């Protein structure tokens, strides 16, 4: 639980509202303030930081825009549940995207196995009928809360090299840096489905709740499909962000 906020360091070149925003952001992300915990009131923060109300509100406005806090009329400002926002203008892994936003991202391996490629996987990875694939099943965590079940499928020559490796981080950097496979692009599709028993178990969902399912097929720079994934996210914990232009 929060033990109260401390005054800021003196002689910082940053504007006061930026210092306050950064202090509060750090306290939120490191767990000093828990999800749905109320922040100190504007009057309390004015006293602690020795600044005007407008400065406090400017800092809080930035945190609102980042999705870190929300306000309840007459009750105050509260810590939001972390929501992963991934911009699909650039191909990047979950951990890469979350680290850039100041979140802690990790993964727990549920299984890694060789199996006959399901029909959709066979088609996506350009495999021959009856050909095997390597399936890696993981739970992804955001600030240590489960947000995604990830089923990834790889051709045998790539996937078999993953046995015995640390798969608690992003696989994209492993493909590039450890395996020497330059990544090209990915095809992505989104839909909403009802959470199955597995999603309910690992994502702490109730029967009948919906989840966001992302299908992502990643190619190497030469255009070969090398990674086909089903990424199933809690609907309240993830958002894909797009930018499109009308030419």
Automatic annotation (TrEMBL):
<dbReference type="InterPro" id="IPR050679">
    <property type="entry name" value="Bact_HTH_transcr_reg"/>
</dbReference>
<dbReference type="InterPro" id="IPR028978">
    <property type="entry name" value="Chorismate_lyase_/UTRA_dom_sf"/>
</dbReference>
<dbReference type="InterPro" id="IPR036390">
    <property type="entry name" value="WH_DNA-bd_sf"/>
</dbReference>
<keyword id="KW-0805">Transcription regulation</keyword>
<protein>
    <submittedName>
        <fullName>Putative alkanesulfonate metabolism utilization regulator</fullName>
    </submittedName>
</protein>
<dbReference type="InterPro" id="IPR011663">
    <property type="entry name" value="UTRA"/>
</dbReference>
<dbReference type="InterPro" id="IPR036388">
    <property type="entry name" value="WH-like_DNA-bd_sf"/>
</dbReference>
<keyword id="KW-0238">DNA-binding</keyword>
<feature type="domain" description="HTH gntR-type">
    <location>
        <begin position="14"/>
        <end position="82"/>
    </location>
</feature>
<dbReference type="Pfam" id="PF07702">
    <property type="entry name" value="UTRA"/>
</dbReference>
<dbReference type="GO" id="GO:0003677">
    <property type="term" value="F:DNA binding"/>
</dbReference>
<dbReference type="Pfam" id="PF00392">
    <property type="entry name" value="GntR"/>
</dbReference>
<dbReference type="GO" id="GO:0003700">
    <property type="term" value="F:DNA-binding transcription factor activity"/>
</dbReference>
<keyword id="KW-0804">Transcription</keyword>
<dbReference type="InterPro" id="IPR000524">
    <property type="entry name" value="Tscrpt_reg_HTH_GntR"/>
</dbReference>
<dbReference type="GO" id="GO:0045892">
    <property type="term" value="P:negative regulation of DNA-templated transcription"/>
</dbReference>
């Amino acid at each position: 639980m929060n033990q109260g906020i401390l005054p800021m360091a003196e002689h910082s070149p940053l504007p006061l509202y930026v210092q306050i925003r950064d202090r509060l952001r750090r306290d939120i992300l490191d767990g000093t303030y828990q999800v749905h915990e109320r922040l100190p009131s504007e009057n309390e923060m004015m006293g602690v930081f020795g600044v005007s109300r407008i400065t406090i509100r400017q800092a809080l406005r930035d945190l609102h825009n980042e999705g870190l806090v929300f306000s309840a009329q007459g009750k105050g400002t509260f810590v939001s549940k972390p929501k992963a926002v991934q911009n699909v203008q650039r191909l990047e892994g979950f951990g890469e995207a979350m680290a850039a936003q100041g979140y802690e991202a990790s993964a727990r391996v549920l299984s890694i196995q060789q199996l006959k490629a399901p029909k959709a996987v066979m088609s996506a990875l350009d495999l021959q009928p009856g050909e095997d694939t390597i399936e890696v099943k993981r739970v992804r965590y955001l600030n240590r809360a489960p947000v995604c079940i990830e089923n990834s499928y790889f051709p045998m020559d790539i996937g078999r090299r993953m046995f015995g490796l640390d798969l608690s981080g992003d696989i994209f950097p492993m493909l590039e840096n450890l395996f020497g496979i330059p990544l090209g692009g990915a095809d992505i599709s989104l839909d909403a489905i009802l959470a199955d028993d597995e999603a309910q178990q690992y994502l702490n969902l109730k029967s009948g709740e919906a989840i966001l399912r992302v299908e992502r097929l990643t190619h190497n720079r030469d255009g070969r499909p090398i990674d086909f994934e089903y990424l199933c996210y809690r609907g309240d914990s993830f958002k894909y962000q797009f930018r499109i232009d009308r030419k």
